[in-house]
Amino acid sequence: MPSILAKMKGRIQDLLHYNFLISQLTCLMSFMSKLSNNYRTHTCGELNIKQVGNQVTLCGWVQKSRILGGLTFIDLRDRYGITQLAFNTEVNKNLSEQAGELGREFVVQVIGVVRERQSKNKNISTGDIEIEVNEINILDQCETPPFTIEDKSDGGEEIRMKYRYLDLRRGPLQRNILLRHRVAQEVRNYLSNQEFLEIETPFLIKSTPEGARDFVVPSRMNQGQFYALPQSPQTFKQLLMVGGFDRYFQIVKCFRDEDLRADRQPEFTQIDCEMSFVKQEDVRDIFEELVRHLFKKIKNVDLDKFPVMSYQDAMRFYGSDKPDLRFDMKFVEINELAKNKGFNVFDQSELVVGIKVDSCAEYTRKQLDELTDFVRKPQIGGKGLVYVKCNEDGSFKSSVDKFFDQDALKKWADAFNAKPGDLILIVSGDVNQSRQVLCELRLEMGNQLGLRDKDTFKPLWVNDFPLLEWDEESKRHHALHHPFTSYLKNEAELKKIEEGNLTGLISDAYDMVINGVEIGGGSIRITDKDVQARMLDWLGFSPEEARAQFGFLMDAFKYGTPPHGGIAFGFDRVCALFGGSDSIRDFIAFPKNNSGRDVMLDAPSAIAGEQLDELGLNLKKNE
Amino acid sequence: MPSILAKMKGRIQDLLHYNFLISQLTCLMSFMSKLSNNYRTHTCGELNIKQVGNQVTLCGWVQKSRILGGLTFIDLRDRYGITQLAFNTEVNKNLSEQAGELGREFVVQVIGVVRERQSKNKNISTGDIEIEVNEINILDQCETPPFTIEDKSDGGEEIRMKYRYLDLRRGPLQRNILLRHRVAQEVRNYLSNQEFLEIETPFLIKSTPEGARDFVVPSRMNQGQFYALPQSPQTFKQLLMVGGFDRYFQIVKCFRDEDLRADRQPEFTQIDCEMSFVKQEDVRDIFEELVRHLFKKIKNVDLDKFPVMSYQDAMRFYGSDKPDLRFDMKFVEINELAKNKGFNVFDQSELVVGIKVDSCAEYTRKQLDELTDFVRKPQIGGKGLVYVKCNEDGSFKSSVDKFFDQDALKKWADAFNAKPGDLILIVSGDVNQSRQVLCELRLEMGNQLGLRDKDTFKPLWVNDFPLLEWDEESKRHHALHHPFTSYLKNEAELKKIEEGNLTGLISDAYDMVINGVEIGGGSIRITDKDVQARMLDWLGFSPEEARAQFGFLMDAFKYGTPPHGGIAFGFDRVCALFGGSDSIRDFIAFPKNNSGRDVMLDAPSAIAGEQLDELGLNLKKNE
């Protein structure tokens, strides 16, 4: 028996040895084949203590190099991380010298062996190891970059836009673009799992005069005619509902030729969605879930059920249709307590309205003067600011205590539910203007008190918007959302129509607001051709214009249209929100500047005379 | 003990009863809440025998109705399927009459109870059940549609394009759009899992004169200047590689203002990809795996390793750079055997080349005449056709047996490896032209013999394309792929450059071909600014033009450019391939017609004079 066992043991050892050799050989062959075929075996973010002793090939950019006596260290960077390369003059003088001469942003391939570091760097995933390099191949050199390619760059906005491909190498932008990819993927997978189909709609469509200006595209094959680039796929997604695709979405570029304000882009991306057989609540529920899912997946943040606030309440309590709910300071209207008490400014105001700021009764004269200066800034447009300090001793100190005695101020404090130590700030004037001013002041106080934390998220829905607003300048109604938005289907609205009270109509529309930013908005649509025709009439379209522009949609409504509604999210804005930034430009790979130019490409630019000829166009002479 | 057991039993029964009641109540409440809030509880493709007895609410379109005595049946359709609705005059006369009056394509909501069908329909998933309807709500009526909305429609192309939203309701188009969505999702998930990032590139870019014509977009803010819509994101994806994003993809709209041929669209979709630190084999491997993955997931087809064929071999053996490998009939060149034997036609030809068609020696005179007519069609351009029948008895019958005796024909047959019973078809003429003619004949024979099965898939890579071709008309070189494609980096190519043999240069480019269709193509790129400048020089750009058009790219190459390459797939074409169709239009929700018009929208169209004024443009008068 023992001899059999011994034999078996020997045989097993042979086998193990054999397998070991085979595995070594396989490893080697695989490595050889990699080496001969592939530029790299690993990325710069991949190696750790487990690979110590392995030969590897890496490619990347030289982030920086340090020479310490006979030792040279280089940080090699790619999208995945940074790996330290080590060279020792005593081991290989030539190679060390070669390494010392590598400039910043050179692209190199190195072959070497992974070894444990002497002094570890706990801040990076590869910080336990370094590469003892045996071979360097310079894949490309680099002229001195126009700015430093580090998380904090020394380059100004303009130069970084011109060399956007270099700016994109910096960590913050790399992370933003990766975040954008992840958000898009999550949106697509979530909606696909909910039976939504992503359906591409055309980019060369028909120009419509409603809303912002279209970019147009002259047709060569049909001279004198133009396509337009879509401001949104609105009518197409509605036609898809007529076509029976009851759940549609698309992450899609849209175009608006507007005079650009800061942080607007002539081309921007929407998450565009539409559903059939739904009411407002259904649409809100689905997309609230989507956003909750994204926050969980991307930020690991759990969001509660979103509150729903009417437009009227939002304006009344926050002076804005996109209130920032990360902090309170709800507006309190005190007309009853403040008007007709002998203070002329209040007496002549439509509205006296204020906010209570917790624990700020100690604000100095200087601080209060600065707040008054703030509301008087031209872009804010306030006339002045009244304050009431609720002193710790129960007394009150106010800028208007000439007109209001302690009893009167006590009543104010009660209205604001103010405690001793709180500060009340009050503005007055026209209803709209005073609300706007107080809204800005509220946000400013939120900023000053650090109540607008980028890592806190307070979403809500705002609904019950007016359907139409009257524009004095053009003497016609404008759609607050767009001409395809339905009014609420109830008797009250029908009565308003009968009475001609069009600006009183309430729309079946809703906005999603997070931290004071409108990230999405939508509505239940008109699906009746006669209602649509009437809406276009209200908006000042002649029947002929309505026909020419939207005849195809009204025709479609003749053939069995399901009730439908949808929403569109500003995708650039959503990414900026997740990235904790106010600037959408940092989340777009190749943005335009504030004048709508691509300074890297130098576009737009002149085109050849023959191109104009082919299009049947002449440039107007400057007159 | 028994009493305890009895008590426990009683308690358990109570609990079960209680739970049963609770569950019933929960069910009821959930149903009530659904009923009050939601248009529907289920889709028309969802119910089966398990739901018998449940009350449900469905919404959909009336596909058709049948009245059989006192019974009325309606097929209710949505995107998910068809459910049969049943009405009985004896049960509810009014409702039955109401049902009988519903027209085709009416949109209705019905509330009823699921019951088992008397006669089941095994062809549909809901075929075991029907709904005994208690309530019908007409959500929208429908005028008589301009064509029947069934899998086989009676509508012509033009009318179906005009009412595309109705055409989209038909089963085949619903399935195509669903397929497109699925393919896109699979591509995105597969590439995301491989560390590819989807990065959006801009649509308003700079016009470049290379390749097809650009669509241009006049700028209002910069009058007299124009953006262009991208023909592809080529330069942007290369800049992303310079920016360190080593794996990029995008499913993206591209634009070409070409004179449209059948099945070309002015806007089309690409799966656009680029990778850094790769050689041709790396790119081919990754995207071969992608396509293999798609075939497995979408078609449940396993594809073998794709063969690689040089452009030279593809032209020589199949007369095409996109050979259909579903069948053989490889070209055989017989100059040696056929020329200088006294047959004038062959003697004056550069090339005598043919195919062997298995088991077709029995072709009749008429059939052979038809083949001769085929090659002589103007769009084929052949001059004639020579045949050799390899008779079963070992003899040969040929259209040229006046010039070639049995021994000579035997040698031909040997060259073609022909057996008795086979047919040899031969053409002659210029090399290029005779190959083109024979290519068409080969495909025609494949069609006639049923060798081009839509469910068989034969992919291959074609590579080693010429880098440049000389264009006699414009007297300059054109890039066969595009100006950013590298030539192979070997000594042979450098020698050709030295010798000025530019048309001899072989590019580092590759096409993926499946079943005779080029579904994708790409290349390893030039990454050296001097090589790029030289390439643009070869293509006839002056240094100033090169600078103006591509200066940004050559600048980028100064700052550490990784070796990179990529590929782009025609996504519309890929979808058509998976859908077993030749027409990409059937896989686009809102395509343009052959004149580049959207006949539904009536676009392009005239725009207002003020719009032109704002753009600083005049229409040219017709002269």
In short:
The first copy, chain A, has 623 residues and is of the alpha+beta class.
Describe the structure.
- Two copies of one chain form a homodimer.
- By secondary structure, the first copy, chain A, is α+β, with helices and mostly antiparallel strands.
- Chain A has three domains: 49-140, OB fold (Dihydrolipoamide Acetyltransferase, E2P) (Beta Barrel); 175-309 and 459-587, 2-Layer Sandwich (BirA Bifunctional Protein, domain 2), CATH 3.30.930.10; 327-448, 2-Layer Sandwich (Gyrase A, domain 2), CATH 3.30.1360.
- Helix content of chain A is 34%, strand content 23%.
- Chain A has 18 helices and 23 strands.
- In chain A, the strands form five sheets. An eight-stranded mixed β-sheet of chain A has the order 6-9-10-22-21-20-17-11, sandwiched between helices. The first copy, chain A, has a five-stranded mixed β-barrel with strand order 1-2-3-5-4.
- Chains A and B meet through helix 4, helix 5, strand 6, strand 7 and strand 8 of A and helix 4, helix 5, strand 6, strand 7 and strand 8 of B.
Core attributes:
homodimer, 623 residues, alpha+beta, OB fold (Dihydrolipoamide Acetyltransferase, E2P), BirA Bifunctional Protein, domain 2, Gyrase A, domain 2, 3 domains, 8-stranded mixed β-sheet, 5-stranded mixed barrel, 23 strands, 23% strand
